[in-house]
């Protein structure tokens, strides 16, 4: 199954909201809480990485974290009516969680010490360097240091009109 198939909303009803950002920004926590709040499915991109890739410590979050425009374009193909550049009408929306390198590195180090993730803190800088956001994409950038429940509430409010007429 192609990666974009996981995000393929029904063009008449579905909406996919991708919570993106570097490792340690809180994507999994926020996305799981958002799915719960909306009563919709939750896809954890890390579940689709091979054990071999995790074991090598590669910067595997790059593609699943949507750090680059070309990766987001692949994800946007989940909307079969999407035409490149038609960001506003695309049914795949992006919310980017951002925090300082120090905050992210601290989170990643704590998580690694607890045995909770394969991403080493040494790759945080490279992920931050790869992150590219073009204002034309309309990606919502959110401070990842605010409580996750507040991010979820703001995200639901932002997409309220689209969500009111769709099933997640």
From TrEMBL:
Pathway: Carbohydrate acid metabolism; D-gluconate degradation
Family, as annotated: Belongs to the gluconokinase GntK/GntV family.
Keywords, comma-separated and alphabetical: ATP-binding, Kinase, Nucleotide-binding, Transferase
EC number: 2.7.1.12
An individual GO BP term: carbohydrate metabolic process
UniProt xrefs under Pfam families: SKI (PF01202)
Any one annotated GO CC term: cytoplasm
Family matches, as InterPro entries: P-loop_NTPase (IPR027417), Shikimate/glucono_kinase (IPR031322), Therm_gnt_kin (IPR006001)
Gene3D superfamilies linked to this entry: P-loop containing nucleotide triphosphate hydrolases
Protein name as annotated: gluconokinase
Gene Ontology terms, MF aspect: ATP binding; gluconokinase activity
Catalytically driven reaction(s): D-gluconate + ATP = 6-phospho-D-gluconate + ADP + H(+)
Taxonomy, superkingdom: Eukaryota
High-level lineage: Eukaryota, Viridiplantae, Streptophyta, Embryophyta, Tracheophyta
């Amino acid at each position: 199954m192609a990666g974009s198939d996981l995000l393929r909303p029904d063009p008449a009803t579905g909406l996919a909201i991708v919570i993106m950002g570097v490792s340690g920004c809180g994507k999994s926590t926020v996305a799981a809480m958002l799915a719960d709040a909306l009563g919709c499915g939750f896809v954890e991109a890390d579940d689709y990485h091979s054990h071999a890739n995790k074991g090598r410590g590669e910067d595997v979050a790059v593609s699943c974290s949507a750090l680059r425009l070309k990766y987001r374009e692949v994800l946007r193909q989940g909307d079969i009516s999407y035409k490149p550049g038609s960001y506003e009408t695309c049914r795949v929306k992006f919310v980017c969680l951002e925090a300082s390198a120090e905050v992210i590195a601290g989170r990643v180090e704590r998580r690694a010490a607890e045995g909770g993730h394969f991403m080493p803190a040494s790759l945080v800088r490279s992920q931050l360097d790869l992150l590219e956001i073009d204002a034309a994409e309309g990606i919502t950038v959110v401070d990842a240091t605010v409580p996750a429940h507040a991010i979820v509430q703001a995200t639901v409010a932002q997409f309220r009109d689209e969500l009111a007429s769709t099933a997640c």
